Amino acid sequence: MQANIVEKSTGNALPLLAIALVCLTIFLPICLLTPCYYADDGGYTQMLSYFVQNGKVDLMHWSQPTAISLIVIASLIVKIIGFGFAQLDIIGLLFATAAVCGIYVLLKTRLSSVVSFMVALSIFAFNEVTYVTPTFMTDIPFLAFSVWWLVFLDRTLTSETNNRWNYLACFVFLLLSLLTRSTILLALPALFGAAIFCQKERKTLLIQSGVFVACLLLSLAITKFLSINQLSFLDTTALREIIQLHDFARFNLRELAVATLYVVFACSPLLMVVKAADSKLRIVQIGSAVIAGVLAVYFTYKGFFVPFGKLASPVVILCVMVAAFNIPIVVTASLQKEKVLSVILLIYAASQLAVLPIMAHPLVRHAIPAMVSLTIVIAVANMWRNNAFRLLMVLSPLLIFANVINLQQIRLIDFATWQLVQDLNEKGVAKDKVDAGWGWFCYTALVPGSNDPKHYVEKYRDWQSDAKFFVGNPSDQQKPGTVLISLPVHHLANHSEIVVVQR
Question: pLDDT tens-digit profile of 59-82?
C-alpha cells in the first residue's frame, strides 16, 4: 500500500515538474540574457526598493494599492536571490509557473493528465500572458493567486465533507489576490450569481461570499497599515482607478471589442478542435462567427488587432471566426456538465471584459483572467474531437512559439534601449533629460518617499517635453531632432530600429 501511495505521488508530481521545466526552458534565458524593465515594472522596482529599506509602501499616486502583496513577497525572495532586473523577472516566472500548475491541478480530476498538461500550458497562446511572464508586475502574480483560490473553491464545492483546510486555503489565496489586484472584487458577483442559479451549492457559495467579505476587510486594514499614503475607501480598494463610472467620457467600447478578440484568438487552438454538435444553436453560432469576423476585419484594418502583423491577418481572422462559432456550444456543454464552476467562471470572465471600457487605463493584458476563465470553461466542456490532442499539439505550440519570438524581439529592443540610455548617463546626460519611453520613466521618475503631488500622467508629459534626448523607436518621437545613433535590432523575421536623437 505504501508503494502505491509513493507511485501515485510521483505520478502527480511529474506533470508539475514538466510544467516547471517547460516554463524555465522558455523564459529563464530571456530573464538572464535581456535583464531590463518591460513597462510598469520600473515603478514597482522602485516601490520594492523603498519597502526593503523602510518597511512601508508609497503608492506615489501611481500604483494600485493592491500591489502590496507583490511587494511584500518579493522583498522576502530578493533576500535569497538578490536584487536586480534578472532576479525580479525570475520572480514573475515563478508566479507564472505556479499559475500554470494551478490550472493543471484544477483540470486533472476532469481530464487526462496529458490533456490537462496541454490545456494548462495553452494560456501562453495569449500573447499578453507570454509578454508579462518575465516581468515584475502584478498581472501574473494575481493570476497565480486567483487560480489557486479557484482550485480550493472548487474543492469546497465538490467535496462531500467540509474540509476546514480547503476553506483556510481559500481565505489565504483570496487575501493574496485582493492584495495583488483589486479586479478580484469581480469574483464576488460571480459567487452571488452562482448562488442564485445553483441551489444545491448555495450554502457553500454563501459561506464563500462571507469569507470574501472578511478577506476584503482584512486586506483594507493591511493596506492602511503598510501604506504611507492617506487613502479613502475608493483609493484603498483601487476602485477609483479601476471603475470610473463618474467619467462617462472614458467609456470606450473599442477596448472591450479588441480585448475580446484577443481572448477568442488565444483560445482558438482549443475551440477549433471542438466536435460538431446538434443544430439547435446553429443560428447563434453563425451570428457569433459573423459578429466576430466583422469586428476582427474592422479592428485589423484600424491597426488595433494585429497579433502577428498584417500578412498573418487573414489566418488570424479565420481562426477568430471558427473559435467564435464554437463558443456557444462549448458554453452550453460546460453549463450542463458542471453548472456551478461554469457559472462562476463565465460571470467572472464577462465582468473582467465588461469593466474594460470604464477603466482609467484599459489594456489588453487586463483581460488575462477572462482568457484563463474561458480556457477552463472549454476544458470543462470537453467537447474535443477524437484527434483533438494531435491537432492541439500543433496549433497551441505554434501560437506559443510565435508569441515567444515576439517577446524575444521586444526584450532585445528594451535591453538595447536600456544600454543606450546607460551610455548617455555615463557621458554626463542627466536621467531626467532622456525620453526613453514609459518603462524608463517609471524606473527613473517615480521616486517613493518624495511626496510628489503631480499625477503621473501629467508628470510623464512634462518629462517627454523637457527631455533633451530621445531613445527608442523613431515612430515614437515627440519632437524632431538630430539622429546621433541608429541601431538595427534583428531577431529571426523581426526587424526594428532604435535611434538616439538629440533635440
Answer: 776 655 568 899 999 999 999 998
